[in-house]
Design a protein that fits this description.
By secondary structure, this protein is mainly alpha-helical. The chain has one domain: Glycosyltransferase. Helix content is about 50%, strand content about 10%. It is built from twelve helices and nine strands. Strands 5-6-7 form a three-stranded antiparallel beta sheet, with no helix packed on it. A hairpin with a 4-residue loop joins β3 and β4.
């Protein structure tokens, strides 16, 4: 051992082991994935590997996970597959029917451009940002999430995750239009989406003049409940918004959301939340590993943004508790099982009985990202 090297801690050893499993799993997944299709989920009882196409909101997570795994490897083992998928995905740069272009294009092209910048990647990202910006309404102050009737203007908390693409677009082009849209959306969301305890609703319906018509929760237990993944989206989104703007109100928002999550009486000791913080059958309610992975990754960034050392230490400790929980046989799949997905026990949309207690492509992405962030801290 060299004089400047440090022995690996137990969590880093566990992370390295899990990364090896992830590489094997994604090779297994590649063998089941038809051309032009993207992994969605897997149902073990039927051995059913479910796929979708590039327009789906999660299409960027599969190439994004492969890019992260290549970054964690000594040699690029998924290069050909990444290039194949990106070549198919690039047509979505012109998709103006979705607010999820951040998920779709920044998790994929954003990551590959970060590692291997190219004019082509930057052009695709700029076109994606233009498509996303086309959904912004200045009177309402938000990017429309879901298309509905002409009298509805639906905005979901998830949309905070798509702002990073807009921040990048201004950084690259020097055109402040994209930055201005992002902060207006973030400000309107702070004003209307959050309750006094800093939990958030899932869906807001705005009137044409910007007034709120209705606040509700589509994928959680009830309109007054705190859907776990929604809280995770908010935490991650405002952490990124502070990183990109350095405006302290966004850091305050992120820390208040973190406080709600981490100090909630219904958060289990192992820090993997129930699918909804107010689920009626706690402690027998399902956990959501996807929410846990998003929270862990966000905390590993937020810990370096706060100036309070005690708070930074808490965020780091709680993120490691989550990782130590997720990186166990309870949550990590064995080789060549789980359809090739890494993480088990995600909850997509329980009220509609959709993707319940199954692997989810975004759960893998944010878990791999959290492991990468932990190793980079070391």
């Amino acid at each position: 051992m060299s004089a400047c090297s440090q022995p690996k801690d137990p969590l880093e050893i566990k992370i390295d082991e899990t990364i090896d499993i992830a590489k094997n799993q994604y090779k297994h997944m590649m063998s089941r994935l038809p051309n032009g299709k993207y992994p969605k989920t897997y149902y073990a009882e039927k051995d059913e590997f479910e796929t979708t196409e590039s327009w789906w909101w999660c299409s960027g997570f599969y190439p994004g996970s492969l890019i992260y795994l290549d970054e964690l490897s000594e040699e690029p083992i998924f290069k050909n597959e990444i290039n194949r998928v990106l070549d198919d995905l690039k047509k979505e740069q012109y998709n103006t029917t979705t607010h999820d272009l951040g998920f779709m294009m920044y998790c994929s092209y954003g990551n590959t451009n970060r590692l291997n910048p190219s004019d082509e990647y930057k052009s695709i990202l700029m076109n994606s940002a233009k498509s996303l910006a086309s959904r912004f309404n200045d009177t309402i102050g938000c990017i429309k999430s879901w298309d509905s009737t002409k009298d509805d203007y639906l905005v979901i908390i998830d949309n905070m995750m798509n702002l990073e693409l807009l921040f990048w677009a201004t950084e690259h082009s020097k055109d402040s239009t994209y930055y201005d849209i992002a902060i207006k959306h973030a400000n309107t969301t702070i004003k209307n989406h959050f309750r006094e305890d800093y939990s958030s609703y899932h869906v807001l319906n705005y009137m044409a003049n910007g007034d709120v018509k209705r606040k509700r929760t589509e994928q959680g237990f009830s309109d007054s409940s705190a859907w776990a993944r929604g809280q995770a989206w908010g935490l991650y989104g405002y952490t990124v918004t502070y990183r990109k703007t350095k405006d302290p109100k966004y850091l305050e928002q992120a820390t208040k959301i973190a406080n709600f999550i981490l100090n909630h009486p219904n958060l289990p000791e192992d820090k993997v939340p129930y699918w909804d913080f107010n689920a009626p059958d706690i402690p027998d309610a399902l956990r959501d590993s996807s929410a846990a992975a998003i929270i862990a990754s966000a905390l590993l960034e937020l810990k370096d943004l706060v100036t309070d050392e005690a708070l930074s230490k808490q965020y780091f400790n709680d993120s490691t508790i989550i990782l130590n929980t997720l990186l166990t046989d309870e949550y990590i799949a064995k080789n060549n099982t789980n359809g090739g997905f890494l993480l088990k026990h995600g909850v997509g949309h329980l009220p509609q009985n959709s993707e319940v207690d199954v692997p989810l492509t975004y759960a893998d992405y944010y878990l791999i990202e959290a492991m990468l962030r932990y190793k980079n801290l070391k």
